[in-house]
């Protein structure tokens, strides 16, 4: 009986330690790139604009909790979220790239045309959509992120870009 309990405790500890890996989460779209671990924010098409977003320890912990809550750490490879309705040209504007121990594990692209009420998403796609929503809600409360989003808006007004 003692061996079984010891085995069970060892298994639980090993399972928990696997979830403590070193995560890098990147957000990118046609306007900017953001590394949530380092805080590096870039707008490559706007005079190679670079800035830093300072995330508090609490914000970093909340991001980590969201990764686990929505099982984003378990995805491998590419994943596109776009719903069941027919789209002629889906717009995969927001892309989340998760690297674990400096190795890219997954790239998740989410169409801006997804509507949670109308898109008929499956459970995994709904979790990804909710992950995106909660990440941006968290970031919108950060002053540095909001300042940089204002810069993106100004840059879009100053420089008209054509997407084909």
Describe the structure.
This is Lipoprotein. The chain has one domain: Mago nashi protein (2-Layer Sandwich). 39% of the residues lie in helices and 23% in strands. With 164 residues, the chain is an alpha+beta fold. It starts with a helix and ends in a 6-residue tail after the last helix. The mean pLDDT is 84. The protein has four helices and seven strands. Strands 4-3-2-1-6-7-5 form a seven-stranded mixed β-sheet, with helices on one face. A hairpin with a 4-residue loop joins strand 2 and strand 3. Helix 2 packs antiparallel against helix 3.
Structural class: alpha+beta
User: What is the CATH first-level class name?
Assistant: Alpha Beta
Give the domain tally. 1
Instruction: Please give the share of residues in helix.
Output: 25-40%
Please state the average pLDDT score: 84
Mind describing the biggest β-sheet? Answer: 7 strands, mixed
| Radius of gyration (Å) | 19 Å
Poorly predicted tracts of residues: none
